[in-house]
Amino acid sequence: MSIRLIVNADDFGFTRDVNEGIVEAHSNGILTAATLMANGDAFDHAVGLARQNPSLDIGCHLVIVQGQSVLDPGRTLPASLQGVATSLLLGQLPVYEEFAAQVRKIKAAGIHPTHLDTHKHTHLLPPVLKAVVRIARNFSIPWVRRPFDFKPGTSATAKLINLRKPAVISALRELKTTDHFAGFQLTGILNEANLIETLEQLPAGLTEFMCHPGYLGPELEYAATRLKASRQVELQALTSPAVRRVIVDRRISLTGYPATG
Known about the structure:
- This protein is α/β, with parallel strands linked by helices.
- The protein has a single domain (3-254), classed as TIM Barrel, CATH 3.20.20.
- It is built from 11 helices and 8 strands.
- The protein has helices at residues 16-27, 43-52, 81-89, 95-108, 126-138, 156-162, 165-171, 192-201, 218-221, 229-238, 241-249; strands at 3-12, 33-36, 57-62, 115-118, 143-144, 180-182, 205-211, 253-254.
- α4 (95-108) runs parallel beside α5 and α8 (192-201) runs parallel beside α11.
- The radius of gyration is 17 Å and the shape is globular.
């Protein structure tokens, strides 16, 4: 079986300097896909770039943590995962309706998303996972991220996440998922060396590699995120000639989300 790889950037639409880094990683690197934040401050800028780069496979980065609501403009979403959990317990977070509003905004901009994932992997939470499955079915979006690194981590967070693996895979069984996933454990620390190490260990089949490239410009500098300088390091890795050589040497096929299986 061949090795196929989707290199997917989260946070398209977050800031203009992030958007420009994502497009650079696609035009001059190995990036093949991105997921668009409907509530991102640079949403319109991202839509324009997507139109100029039709080979970039666009999905939806569903957001219920951080930023503003699309369903109820002016309302702020919970600032943390703990806040999301509390809001869910209190019945104060209409997850499906918020996600539906975000997908509708993306589609109204002329973009037809091929895949779904969630900001901060919130679809690990059962109520959010249920809403994501409904969104995928109701809006005919075939692919959903399975956020479990093919090399299980040893940290407490990684072990906790892997406890959800059977339930998540079961919930997504009637939808399309890649065979493998990578990138979670490298969030914030991805560089040329560990990207090459990951590529050299990729298993056969289709893998999604999650990343967060960008330029460290003034908008990102003042944005509410811990991923700042690291985004530019990721961009350098994704456009590295040494990384490209590993892709060629291992005969890794770079692809977007296939229309079939």
